[in-house]
Specification:
The protein has about 350 residues and is α+β, with helices and mostly antiparallel strands. The chain contains 9 helices and 17 strands.
Length: about 350
Amino acid sequence: MSSIAVSNLQLKIATFNLFNYLEPPNAFYDFERIYSAEQWRKKQHWIAEYLREYQPDIIGFQEVFSPESLKQLVAEQGYHYFAVVDEPQVIDDFIYKRPVVAIASRYPIIEVAAVKPNIELAQTLGLTQDFSFSRKVLRATVNVPHLGSCDCYVVHFKSKRSMIELDEQNKSRSPEQTIIESLKAQVAGGWGSTIQRGSEATLLMVDMIERRETTSNPMVLMGDFNNTLTDGVLSHLLTNTLRFVSSIDRDAYLAQYCLKDGWNLFQASIINETSKEEKIPRTPTHYFGASSSVLDYILLSCEFDASYHDSLYQVSGYDTYDRHLINPIFERDGESTDHGIALVTLTLRS
């Protein structure tokens, strides 16, 4: 094996919510939210330090308001391939909303596209004919060592925030009426967001299956899912069974189109190496009050699953960087992010 091949025995992939990445003097969401020059310098430095320490090869970013600034930052860290498929919305000249996703890679990005939902299927599901992803989904085909073309999808699914905004300054309502209207808005608006989020995942998964059928490219889906994978809304992203299909046909083809959680593949590799069934607790990627959850995921196709007979890579490591969340130091972490950073290490199988 050549020296180049030896240096590429591992592949690291990370998903990184940047939390309001917007270069001053622009503002995010309202005119008071502007980083000072010092705050911006600290945020840039914090991101660069993570990249230097953990050295991911491919990174999916969320909450990007300033793509050109991010492109320059990652280029300085050796990521010469960068892409976005959308741009944030600007109101009142300098106030930004609707951030976008981005991808950076050490390896060549040979094709980039925004995934478009199948509107005919969306209408079959009871959605409107103008259905769209709340944030455009990015698909980048990366030329990965030993693997060739690999389709990397970066997502930021709809948040749990209510889709219905109530004017709380309305003086015509009594305090009780305001509470009642707020409750109704939260119930209905929260469900609306759930429908949007689940529909985004469904339509994306169908598109990924169709793309896989056409190209046979390995698949990586990463991002901020704004939901756990275990509560049912997004669990179909990990569908690996079919009803009413012959097991012969099913077993021959199904694995090629299914995704697996990188964390679960890591757990399986530990059990395989140690023969111990004891599971390691998973580190949350987000904290809200006293509660915590995993919202950031990296899902992988069978080429990265050691139990699949034709896989080329196996998951040898999984890291959730959360020091800034559980033990923050202001001087170091004051302008970091409100999410943990998930990183999966893939090792070429011998």
